[in-house]
Design goal:
6-stranded mixed sheet; 2 domains; FdhE-like fold; alpha+beta; binds zinc ion; single chain
Length: 265
């Protein structure tokens, strides 16, 4: 392991988060398999997708996602059991809530934007619901990832689901940049000189931390937004973007100290 790997990958502050995501990965595999066996690819005609993409509309509306409450609830409760070890009081309160008749279905509707109220939910609840729903979105997005129109998308939000990017990626060889959606894992090409948030060019700068070149924080002087960008010259992204995000939170803190903000999806 290189010195750089030691600096961040072995950073003690993130030991629990890495262990947590290792456990999630074990649960996620059979969950994804079960979802793939019941989810039909999104019913979007190529013509309609082309029109939407050309006009800046994401091709999928998560409000139309067909939830499978029993399967999703079982996975949600497995995740909750893992959280219980770290946050017993919050986890028990959530477990009590979701045993109430119809409560989980209502929470799912909120998480899918079919009902209001998600913003008022506790952070752990939002995280658990996102982790439950994102695999569905990821599978649906994979069903259309070969659409050639996706390559021509020039907007800063996800062409599939409309979420904000969670990370940027620099190609190891071409140095081209892609943005990564934290919800459906779609990657799309994006200019290195334009701000993903306000769309202006010429206002992007970046900083790195403690000599770690694997991550740079891109900042926009025009809209004061920032984005963490992973340089894959030091290793390809082989983990969920959320895991990388949660194990580089010191970069967010520094960016925020400098007066920049990140718009959530
Ligand atoms: Zn997306
Ligand atoms: Zn900007």
């Amino acid at each position: 392991m290189s010195q750089m790997d030691c600096d961040l990958a072995e950073n003690e502050a993130y030991v629990d988060i890495r262990a947590f995501f290792d456990q999630i990965a074990i649960l996620r595999e059979p969950y994804m398999r079960a979802l793939r066996s019941i989810l039909a690819p999104p019913a979007i005609s190529q013509d309609l997708a082309a029109i939407k993409l050309e006009n800046g509309f994401p091709i999928f509306d998560r409000r139309e996602l067909k939830a499978h409450p029993a399967l999703l609830k079982a996975y949600f409760l497995d995740l909750l059991t893992m959280v219980e070890a770290q946050k017993p009081h919050e986890a028990r309160a959530i477990r009590y809530r979701v045993t109430q008749e119809g409560c989980f279905e209502e929470l799912l509707a909120q998480a899918l934007g079919q009902a209001p109220g998600m913003a008022a939910q506790p952070e752990i609840m939002r995280f658990l619901l996102q982790e439950t729903i994102h695999p569905l979105l990821e599978i649906q997005a994979a069903g259309v990832h070969n659409l050639p129109e996706l390559k021509r998308w020039t907007w800063g939000y996800c062409p599939f689901c409309g979420d904000a990017p969670l990370l940027g990626l620099l190609d190891a060889e071409t140095r081209a940049k892609h943005l990564v959606c934290g919800a459906c894992a779609t990657r799309w090409p994006f200019s290195r000189h334009r701000c993903w948030d306000c769309g202006t060019t010429g206002n992007i700068a970046y900083f790195t931390v403690q000599g770690d070149q694997r991550f740079r924080v891109e900042t926009c002087a025009a809209c004061k937004s920032y984005l963490k960008v992973m340089d894959q010259g030091y290793g390809a992204l082989d983990k969920p973007a959320m895991q990388v995000h949660l194990t580089t939170l010191h970069l967010d803190m520094l960016a925020q100290d400098k007066g920049f903000a990140r718009r959530a999806g």
